[in-house]
Amino acid sequence: MHFNTNTLEFDKVKALIKQKAHTLKGKVLVDEFTPTNNSLQITRQLNETNHAFDILVKYKEPPFGGIRDLSDTLQKARIYSVLRPTEFLDIIGLIEASRNNVRFYDNVKDNLIEGEYLDDYFLSISKLPGLKQEIEQVISIDGYIHDSASNDLLKIRNKIKTNERRITERLNNILNTQKTRLAESLITIRNNRFVVPVKLSEKNNFKGTIVDYSSSGETAYMEPTVVAELNNKISLLKLDEQKEIERILRDLTIKVADQHEPLSNNFVLLTKVDAIFAKAKFALEYDCLMPEITESEVNLRKARHPLINQKEVVANTITFNEGERLIIITGPNTGGKTVALKTMGLLSLMVQSGMLIPVDEESKTIIFENIFADIGDEQSIEQSLSTFSSHMTRIIDIITNLSVGSLILLDELGSGTDPKEGASLAISILDYIRIRGVYVIATTHYPELKAYAYNKDEVVNASVEFDVDTLSPTYRLLLGTPGKSNALLISERLGLHEKIIKAAKENVLTSKSEVTDLINKLEKQGNTLDQKIREYEDLISNSKSLVKENEKLKVDLIKEKQSLSKKVSVEQSQIIKETKQLALNLIKEIEEIKKSGEIKDHQIANMKYKTKQLNLEESLESSTKNHEYKPGDLVNVLKFSRTGELIKKQKNKWVVKMGALSSVFKETDFEFIEEKKPQVLKSKVTSKIKKHVKGEVDLRGLRYEEARIELDRYIDDCIMTNMPFASIIHGYGTLTLRKLVKTYLDSNSLVLKHRDGEGSEGGQGVTVVYFK
Fold first, then answer.
1. Is 264 helix (H, G, I), strand (E, B) or coil?
2. What domain count does the chain have?
3. How many whole angstroms separate alpha carbon 533 and alpha carbon 302?
4. What's the CA angle centered on 556, arms 551 and 562, to 5 degrees?
5. 23 vs 594, which has greater pLDDT?
6. What are the distances in angstroms from CA 712 to CA 605, 741, 747?
7. Helix (H) or strand (E) holding 164
8. Per the domain annotation, does 577 fall within a domain?
9. What is the distance between the alpha carbons of residues 279 and 276, in angstroms, rounded to a whole number?
10. Are the CB atoms for 102 and 127 separated by under 8 Å?
11. CATH code at 639?
12. Domain carrying residue 633
């Protein structure tokens, strides 16, 4: 394989992508991106990048925080070389990042973002929760070994603290009794020994050993004799502490080594994903898409060079139709010919490295076997090569290595020598490579190559547009139209003497004038056609914008409608609550009247029951406003403004039938209209009122207040159905429920009498109640 990546500045694109990778290893992987001609590998990489791009657009990027380069750390663990505390913290970072990414991809799946191309990465990540916990039990977040890491370490550190406390007490005594001999009244540590600062003039009068001097030399840091032995004990204990820490870390290293394979695998997977998402983030920033890979068609629609300022770059469509193999671009210098070459070459390298490219939708391309580029003269002073020789050296290398299906980019073919010989040589080179099944884009100034293109079906003339009014290039590529010389026109516009211009025109050969007239005619036709194409594309773009605007307006209106509906629902709910409260107050009044014997018991129960049904009505009203969708509901499908019926639910989506058509939508894609059979709601209410009541109620397991409410509801149900008696199961337990039942029944005027259950009825764990 031959890919001229340096000439086409592929490394500059990689540098931009590299900035978007989070991990050091991910950046290294971006550096290692290389184009290939393996179609399976390219397709896989493109799909992976496109899947990551889709996730970025519809959700967010994965959490890569905490992932450091653990290649050396994991290798050390594998050979049982004791890891340092900071290295264990890096492993915790990897484990946490692994768990976060597993959770992230679960959320991606929950959000129904289509695509399985990243499954092999995310679903192969191990969580390793046990190892993280074991490390955290030993090492704190700042790298300190916990006292509790082992019993021996705890004992050693307690002894150190005890001796340090004794030393502090003795040194504080010295600070109080020998102030005149001290430079400062403080305790400090020098060379791991507790010392006090003594005036240099008093060092011989102070009982102790000099450990160090101050930088000025005016103070001697001395270890008093009374703490020397304690300092020695602490030094020995510190050695024991270090040995114990080393042992603890060695044991922990073995545990890491046991998990070497899943840890290494996680590190590799996450850094690969990091590199893939770096490509996706580049694609998002530069408005890139995934082109369709074909066998023989190239159609890069509105292709843009990614290294040119995106606000200034001119988009050009580069096309090889069926049977076309060679494009010859003519036009003035600095008009954009070389940019067109580089755009084709660089975008092809990007595709064959698994990158999305800055083109419009419906773009297509093929996989090239090799990509050769002879762009720029690159004269070699050291080798004394001229511009022509430099070009020819590279062209010879291309011809030597070319194969069927290669892409060849030739800038200023045949330049740097006599125009007639150069044109003849350029035609011969193109004839030689044209029949070898390769794709070629060549730029030239030679008019002979324009005529050459007209005589070959597989050769296409093209040019870069030049605005003669502003005397500047537009950088637009015009396929099918050869370039023309604007030298005389430009000179005339710039003010060259009229006689000189006239003489120059008379000197132009007749044959060339005819060719020029033909070119002018073709260019005029091409410009007209190109203008119509642009108008058509603008019309399509405006139509798409109108459709999106209408969809947004419709959604906004529905949202406003739902908001108003919700407001009405809240108001109605409040009315229901107020009505219920009034009804409850009424019941209280009726119960007072009942005491005077002017109303019957079953009438009170009936009114209480109907009042409680207000809860049901409220829930039905609420369910209409805040609807829980179910099969049979009628909905308005927003995208099509059509009424559909919900058939069944699949995960978080619904199958919606619209006439003879069925499709799948999310709940946010439609709005509730009505239930298919609203009369069912009424029957539900009726069934609630006329339900069958069991002969017993079980209050066991309920809390006090829950039991009281359930008992009250059950007694009302019994009276409504004219039950003569019922059993209330409350159990033994702490007797709280039994007491509640007895008290309630005693105070309820609807109860005739009650008793404990017989042995066959449940004994004292059951109360049998008889109604009036």
1. helix
2. 5
3. 12
4. 125
5. 23
6. 10, 10, 12
7. helix 151-177
8. no
9. 5
10. yes
11. 2.30.30.30
12. 627-691
Nearest to 262 by CA among 80, 108, 129: 129
3-state secondary structure of 725: strand
Type and span of the H or E element at 402: none
DSSP 699: -
- CA-CA-CA-CA torsion for 227, 232, 235, 239, nearest 10 degrees? -160
Element (H, E) at 662: strand 661-666
pLDDT at residue 680 in the model: 39
Per-residue DSSP letter, 56: H
Residue type, 571: E
Contact 673, 635 (CB under 8 A): yes
* Domain match, 29 and 91 both: yes
Residues in CB range of 95: below 8 A, 6 or more apart: 127, 128, 129, 131, 132, 263, 266
Length of the chain: 772
Do residue 325 and residue 401 come from a single domain? yes
Give the CATH number for residue 756. Answer: 3.30.1370.110
207's torsion region: left (phi>0), alpha (psi -120 to 50) or beta? Answer: beta
Report whether 399 contacts 434 (CB < 8 A): no
Whether residue 545 lies inside any domain: the answer is no
Q: What is the value of pTM for the model shown?
A: 0.64
Q: Max alpha carbon distance in the chain (Å)?
A: 134
Query: Which amino acid makes up residue 752?
Result: L
CATH of the domain at 279: 1.10.1420.10
| Percent of the residues in the chain that have a pLDDT greater than 70, as a whole number | 79
Asked whether residue 222 falls in the same domain as residue 320, the answer is no
As a dihedral over the C-alpha atoms of residue 716, residue 720, residue 723, residue 725, rounded to 10 degrees, the angle is 20
Select from 622, 714, 633, 642 the least CA-distant residue to 676: 633
Distance CA 178, CA 199 (A): 11
Question: Which tokens go with 88?
Answer: 């264990």
> Which of 463, 485, 507 is a domain's end point?
485
C-alpha to C-alpha distance for 457 and 542, rounded to whole angstroms: 36
Q: Which residues contact 623 (CB under 8 A, 6 or more apart)?
A: none
Q: pLDDT tens digits for 665-708?
A: 888 888 887 776 544 333 333 334 445 677 888 888 787 778 88
Distance CA 704, CA 736 (A): 8
Compute, in degrees rounded to 10, the torsion defined by CA atoms 451, 454, 456, 462: 90
- One-character DSSP codes across 513-533: HHHHHHHHHHHHHHHHHHHHH
> What are the beta bridge partners of residue 771?
751
367 and 452 housed in the same domain: yes
- Could you read off the pLDDT of 150-168 as tens digits, one per residue? 999 999 999 999 999 999 9
Q: Give the Cβ contact number of residue 436 at 10 Å.
A: 15
Same domain for 170 and 51: no
**Mean pLDDT across the chain:** 82
Among residues 390, 372, 443, which one has the least CA distance to residue 413? 443
Q: 456 and 326 in one domain?
A: yes
The reply to whether 676 and 698 lie within a common domain is: no
For residues 273 and 284, give the distance between their C-alpha atoms in angstroms, rounded to a whole number: 16
Return the HEC string of 575-637. Answer: HHHHHHHHHHHHHHHHHHHHHCCCCCHHHHHHHHHHHHCHHHHHHHHHHHHCCCCCCCCEEEE
The Cβ-side half-sphere exposure at 153, using a 13 Å CA radius, reads 17
Count the alpha carbons within 13 Å of 766 in the hemisphere toward its beta carbon.
Answer: 15
Question: Do the beta carbons of residue 410 and residue 329 sit within 8 Å?
Answer: no
3-class DSSP assignment, residue 208: strand
Burial (0-12, 13-18, 19+ Cβ within 10 Å), 266? buried
Whether 167 and 269 map to the same domain: the answer is no
In a domain, 664, yes or no: yes
Segment (H or E) for 769: strand 766-771
Residue 477, in any domain of the structure = yes
